[in-house]
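Researcher: Good morning. I'm working through a list of sequences from a screen, and I'd like to move beyond sequence-only analysis. For each chain I'm collecting a predicted structure so we can compare shapes side by side. This is the next one on the list. No need for commentary yet; just the structure.
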Amino acid sequence: MPSTSTRKPNRLAVNNQGFCSVFGVKATIIIVGFILLVSVLSLLYLCTWTIITKHKYALLASAYLYAISTYSLLISASITCIAIVALFVTAWIEHAKGLKITLFILILTFIFEITAGLLAFGYTVNLDERLSKNLLETIQNKYHYVKGKTKTFDQMQRRFRCCGSKSFKDWQLNSNFNLSMASAVPDSCCKSYEPKCAQKPYGKHPSNIFYEGCSSALYRFYHSHLITLGCVTVGVSFLQIFTIILLVWLINHVEKIMLFNHPVAPPTKVRRLSNEITYYPIQSSQLVK
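Model: Good morning. Structure tokens for this chain:
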């Protein structure tokens, strides 16, 4: 009977089927990458909207950490968008070096994003006290002396219908406002606002002045937004780390296939003439007879 030889299946071919195949991993990366791209674009929009609408009051309250974390998120989200587009191209053509560069960029932006998200969460701790302290410092040392701060403080008081840091009495810390002077508070503290309203007799009356301090209004303005920004950032970061895991898997598959298709030839052994020569001892003429 003819002998039937059972051929062993190729291990690489077995592991390159179904979901574990290169095509399966590529398809998963493209799907997850698209979801990540939409999430990062949402984060990019949120950061841009934050900078446009909220940063002038944050700088007024000397919330520099909040500003730094937002700008860091904006930059890292922009770089991540470019990296995801590069990921689509390099994954489709199975370019190993391009995949490794994309992996490095995604890991780097992941570190920046998770750090900025944790900073946003951490900044909510004792936020009310920090805002109150910084606003008091602005009232005492910068209002009426720094033009930009003065204008922004007036806009804040009119927008949030507040006065001072904790209350309208905080303006007594500024030498330009006193109960014995023409104005006890700035005009922006008046409920019925008009130029020089605080200098009129009814302007000094407490019924025409906002009672609530601006630190409480700013706390409500920033606290919920910081929680939203932190949650979105952490969610994007977890989705990004899942993409990084898939990308490492794809790089490993691509390198295995490249090694299988183009095996590295073992180094050829160099034959040396000296290794093939047999040496015999020289005998003296007296011994040879």
